[in-house]
Structure formats: structure tokens, C-alpha cells
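Researcher: Good morning. I'm working through a list of sequences from a screen, and I'd like to move beyond sequence-only analysis. For each chain I'm collecting a predicted structure so we can compare shapes side by side. This is the next one on the list. No need for commentary yet; just the structure.
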Amino acid sequence: VQLQASGGGLVQTGGSLRLSCTASGRTLRRYIMGWFRQAPGKERKFVASINWSGDTTRYADSVKGRFSISRDNAVSTMYLQMNSLEPEDTAVYYCATKHTENTGGYDYWGQGTLVTVSS
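Model: Good morning. C-alpha cells for this chain:
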């Protein structure tokens, strides 16, 4: 599985961005997809995840109410709509995926896309 993340950029505080993550190499039936982020000098952290059907989502407390995760399985793409962005959201954002039955970490990772929020 190859994952390609895109959509990052520079935005002012309060602005919005939409990240995309397109998968190739295999059908992601029964795969959970997720977004993580790594701020400069900090560990990578979970942001949000979504199951295959899209009816189960999870969010980190820090982004609840501001970010929305979705996926379009017809085009093998996951999205992260980010609203009300804050400087603390500045990070490299990574997409990842794992099989539903995998109770451990994510198996496949994209290359990351940089989001910079200016104050």
C-alpha cells in the first residue's frame, strides 16, 4: 500500500485547510485510516481516524469540533477538513492505514504534508 498525502500549506490563525490522502496498491476494504501529526521537536501524535464504512470516527481532544475526517472509498481517498486553525496545529501531518483486525500500530504511512499556521 502506498499513501500520498497532500493539501498542506501556510494559513493564518482561524483559517481552514483540507488535507487529502490517496491510497494505491490495493483496495483498503476493512482498513482503518488515520491522520497523525508531528510538531517540530515533538513526538508524532494521533489526530483522527475513520473506519472503512465511515460511520466510526475518533478524534484527539485537541481537534474535536474543529477537524473533520472523512473518506471516499470509490477514489481510495481520505480527507481531513481543518477549521479554526491555531498556531499549535503547525506540524507535519501524516496519513496511515491498518487492517481493522490489527490491534497494534499502523502498518502503512504516507510521506507527510506540512501545515503551518501563522499567528
